[in-house]
Amino acid sequence: MPNKPSMSLESFEDALDTYGGDLGRWPADLRRSAEALVEKSEEAKALLRQAETLDAALAADPAATAPPDLADRIMQRVAEQEVRVQNVRAESSTRGVKWRWLPRVPWPVPRELVAVCCGTVFGVVVGTLLVDAWPTYDRSLDFFNLASAPYFFG
Predict the structure, then answer these.
(1) Where are the domains of the chain?
(2) In this structure, how many other beta carbons lie within 10 angstroms of the beta carbon of residue 11?
(3) pLDDT averaged over consecutive 10-residue blocks of the chain (154 residues)?
């Protein structure tokens, strides 16, 4: 009975995608399993030849280079964006007097949102404090008690 290689064809394909067609670049344990599979399988040999062809084509293609002024254009766009952000912040700080009582926060949150959140928190706190002073539900007016009253039946 011939020895079955320890690597399946699917795992060999995955390793080819990961490490390429040069088995010398593979980790030692995978390389030994792959070499054993290539010796025994024609499909594995064909896959290895395809990967070697792809590696050769990629190595022959010169690396793409960026235009020489790309970094300058990027930095110019960043500076323009910073100016826009500063202008928006300046407009929002002078937009209305009614929100000036709110403290400034270090992150960009609209003051209106802070006001709504403060109002919500205030309402919850007041409601929690007043829960004992608020009139309680009168269970004598429960639906079932009203339905059993004689004046509902005639």
Answers:
(1) 9-60, 99-154
(2) 14
(3) 67 92 90 92 93 88 82 93 86 59 65 83 84 61 54 52
